[in-house]
Write a structure and sequence with these properties.
Elements lengths: L1 E6 L13 H6 L7 E4 L6 H10 L2 E4 L13 E6 L2 E6 L10 H11 L3 E3 L7 E5 L2 E5 L17 E8 L2 E10 L2 E10 L3
Parallel strand pairs: 1-2, 2-3, 5-6, 6-8
Antiparallel strand pairs: 1-9, 4-5, 7-8, 9-10, 10-11
């Protein structure tokens, strides 16, 4: 079992003051092997928090990141999956399925992780999996007035991925499960 945290769009301190405390209680060191981050950490403190959770941390540059050394795209192979990470602000229209599929084909990946919309979304097209973890803090978005704090955990087992989506709704953390199997 390989556990991967997929998270992004924190916008701390510009649009949110902190990660929700209920999420902090769930995200503890020693449980997660990899972190894939869609950017907009904004500060070194957020980076340090993620680095304390898992040493294998992959980040792409968001449009609000102070650290300009993060790459625009990142390719990571975990188990049987080639995974691409982009922030999403250069994918036009933002969050558009056809535009994301074009990026997936350009990167030649099995899974494409993107952010920027601050809205969780997962879908499958042509036996490829697309995941937007949303905004971990529920920070303001110019595309929607209803932003729900979200992140995802992916559990990779062979050619199978189980994605658990964590959503903070009021005072409750709701978890949804999504399955994806890569064709042989």
């Amino acid at each position: 079992m390989v556990l991967i945290l997929v998270i992004g769009d924190f916008h701390i301190p510009y649009r949110s003051h902190d990660l929700p405390s209920k999420f902090k209680k769930l995200l503890v060191p020693g449980k997660i092997q990899h972190i894939l981050c869609t950017g907009n950490l904004c500060t070194k403190e957020t980076y340090d928090f993620l680095k304390a959770l898992a040493a294998d941390l992959h980040i792409v540059k968001g449009d609000f990141d102070e650290n300009q050394t993060y790459p625009d795209t990142k390719l990571v192979t975990i188990g049987a999956f080639k995974i691409g990470i982009v922030h999403g602000h250069t994918v036009v229209p933002w969050g558009d399925h056809q535009s994301l599929a074009m990026v997936q084909r350009q990167l030649d990946v099995d899974i494409l992780i993107s952010g920027h919309t601050h809205r969780f979304e997962a879908f499958e097209t042509d036996n490829k999996f697309f995941l937007n973890p949303g905004s971990a803090t529920g920070s303001y978005s110019g595309t929607t007035s209803e932003v729900i704090p979200t992140f995802a955990l992916m559990n990779i087992q062979g050619n199978h991925v189980i994605t658990y989506v964590y959503q903070l709704r009021g005072d409750d953390v709701k978890v949804e499960k999504i399955d994806f199997t890569k064709a042989s």
